[in-house]
Amino acid sequence: MSKPITVTIFGSSRCSADATCYAEARQLGALLARAGYVVATGGYNGTMEAASRGAAEAGGHVVGVTCDVFSGSVTNPWVHEERRTSDLMQRMTILAGMGDAIVAVMGGVGTLAEVTYVWNLLQIGVMTPRPFLLLGDAWQPILRAIRAHSHIGSSVAALPEVIASPQEILTRLQATLPSPSRPLA
């Protein structure tokens, strides 16, 4: 049996269920699950919950990587498999490493840390090349600022790709990754 193809989704814990960020992350999770991908998130609320929920409701498998640092936080109910870590760096490293592709939805400082961490791992070759996708045009000014205020070459600057919609993320992944072993109906 082949290894399942996992997509890690980084995002905000501060996105409410009635916000656009929640709807997009939920749609993304559902699309990925229907296509047969395993969805991995940080396991808590906000867009992590939304992506987990979308994937679970579509019949997919959801991995939540949680952390002892957030001892008062509750894992969202759509996580099927919880992997608990002792600290934030371990959590970020596990989430980044388990993803055959990395997707980031808009978030806060923690999401920015995750994005720059993955970007650096890809740059220095610690992480094998894989799709590194940022959902939504709101990422463009952030990337422009990073590129303008740093010393990175064009090949490194091009590592993260901004993708406009959840459907376009799925299309990009299907064109790049091996086919998942079992797409869902």
Structure report:
The structure is a single chain. This protein is α/β, with parallel strands linked by helices and 185 residues long. The chain has a single domain (6-174), classed as Rossmann fold. The chain has seven helices and seven strands. The chain has helices at 20-34, 47-57, 88-98, 109-124, 139-148, 154-157, 166-176, and strands at 6-10, 38-41, 62-67, 81-85, 101-104, 132-135, 161-163. A seven-stranded parallel sheet has the order 4-3-2-1-5-6-7, sandwiched between helices. Helix 1 packs parallel to helix 2 (47-57) and helix 1 packs parallel to helix 7 (166-176). The longest helix is centred in the middle third of the chain and has 16 residues, at 109-124. It is globular and about 40 Å long.
